[in-house]
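Sample A.
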Amino acid sequence: MTNIKSTLKDILQANTTPDVFTWIEEGRPLNSVFMLLPRKTGKAALSITQEQSEAINTAIPGFSVDNWTVDHLGRAYLLAKLDSTHKDEYFRKIESLFMAAEMAEQVALYSSLPLLAHPELWVKRCAEGIRSNIGIVLEAIMYSNPYPSQNLEQAAWNQLVLKAFFTDKDINKIVGIDKLANKDLAYIISDYAHERWAAGRELNPQMWRLVGPFIDDKLFEDIKRLFDNGKLTDHRAGALAITTSNYAPAKALLNKYPELERAIANNELSWDDIAG
């Protein structure tokens, strides 16, 4: 964590004036500095080098500040350098920020979860954040944030993924999205798909990537529907899902679409080509 704090400090120093950086470092009460910081730093887009970006991702794989603003980074830096020696006091200080946070402050807090000490302390808070209806708060939890995949229990993780589909988020930005696929989630997605179909609504075809490894008799009916009633995108999604399955009837179904098999075998078709 020391290395990333140093990198964050360097980035913040390069994006603020000496007076402002000194003000941030002076050790005023956390709540006060956290609230007032945007007035001092402004809200300009962050200037960051490729080397700094790579250093952050090396220190915390999946974590990124590339699209942050200066005040966002300033708040994250305050949290990263906060003394965590006394666990209870540390928790109270950060929890008080969550309790009083307006929208931009919530974004800074949730996106900074990977920087906080004692990660077990923030599991409940993260799970509560998933229930938010504020888009940018959800994105702070979901995008380029490895904390959820590393710390949430499966039920909460599955809720996060379903909320991402429900709110049309880009699941490619969710750290651990494929690694943490599980059968319970596959069945949840299947139920969600049936609700959408019954209502005559479109589905995000990316969801089938999380179903493919768990195809069984029940889930195979959903995959067949993609081929029977779907558009070309659905055919492609179904084919890609089948490639991760060992279910023999699914493999036999894919054999009926040699052009899709060839495209996948030749790396001409991947999930990156499937619009979400």
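Sample B.
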Amino acid sequence: MANSPQARKRARQSEVRRQRNAAQRSTVRTFIKKVIKAIRSEDKDAATQAYQEAVPRIDRAARKGLIHMNKAARHKSRLNAHIKAMA
């Protein structure tokens, strides 16, 4: 356990950041799941709308280092490919 005041503060800060990161990561996953659900229901308009809502969230998570930039690009590319294949 942290003994010095500095170490105790760092432990507090780490916990706050961990919880914030977990919440943001969960939000990104939820938005991705909404797109997948719309794709599976074969509703192209809903899928497109959900995709447009998800992209800024994915980009923001990548910019903040929550997920890797390549992972964000991969998610966007695959979701978009599924939506385009619905036509």
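B remarks: The radius of gyration is 17 Å. The mean pLDDT is 96.
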